[in-house]
Amino acid sequence: MSSSAPQTPLDIAVVGGGIAGLTLVIGLLKQNIQVICYEAAHHFGEIGAGVGLGPNSVRAMTLIDPAIKHAFEKVATSNQWESKKNLWLDVRYGEDGDEKGRTGKLIHPMECPGGQAALHRADFLDELVKRVPTNIACFGKRLVALEDLGEEGLRLKFRDGTEATHHAVIGCDGIKSATRQYILGPGNPAAHAVFTGKYCYRGLIPMDKAEALLGEELAKNNSMYIGHHKHIITFPVQKGKTMNDKCLSRFCCRLKLSGLASKDERSVSIKLKSHYQSQLSTLASLKTISP
To answer: For the chain, what is the domain count?
Structure first.
């Protein structure tokens, strides 16, 4: 009579406790898979401001675990006008160019069923944390190396000198990912973050001030303002209490190409901040523009 040894339950390590990491953890727990989340910080926390998600993302949340969708719905904010519920964003001119007075004018409304929902990253993470058991999180664990143990799994080595072994490791450890370096090899250019020449400045503006600056329609609904080598995106977050603005520019790259950039990073930063202020001034001028 043949007999087989009992199988050891699958044991997964998730490296990184951001939005992606905790979403994965919740999904694995839903499938009764044993999981531990290793986070480099001493508590769960999210860097950044607002982020926009489309209907496909919401459907994915539901399929992973409806609890994730419920967390999302508690903090998500859509366009505030009912007439724009199916709008991803309005694409607008962000500068005059060859046509004086066109700044702020509508180029094209980008639409999709359900539109775009936005949220503050930290608010969403806080809701996800509520759905994760406290005993599955290990803090202060910055991964520095992985070792393949064959059938025994993988050994994780952390900066604090501790180690852990799991059947599989899934990396959700961000732009400076140690797991990516392990998979691709430390010599692979794709394994390391590279400066793209683009800067991003983010801001959160109380909605009453945003409305006074832009008017109700532009402040309360998603817009993208297009310019030469730069653009500005604005959208409501925190259930319409706040407007998120994101200014992206290749300004520093152009400075370097023209030979105007200083080697002093502080000097470059000051120039970039000045450029950001000029883009905000552009936003201020939109109040008088008819959509």
So the answer is: 2
Dihedral Cα 143, 43, 239, 59, nearest 10 deg: 40
Cα distance between residue 31 and residue 13, in whole Å: 15
Location of structure tokens 């552009």: 282
CATH code for the domain of 55: 3.50.50.60
Over pLDDT 70: what percentage of the chain? 83
Position 37 pLDDT exceeds 90: yes
Q: Given pLDDT bands bounded at 50, 70 and 90, which one contains residue 278? A: low
Which sequence positions are flagged as catalytic? 202
| Residue 14 burial by Cβ neighbours in a 10 Å radius (0-12, 13-18, 19+) | buried
Same domain, 141 and 187: yes
Q: Domain check: are 128 and 245 in the same one?
A: no
Tell me which of 171, 191, 211 is where a domain ends.
191
184 class by beta-carbon count within 10 Å (0-12 exposed, 13-18 middle, 19+ buried): middle
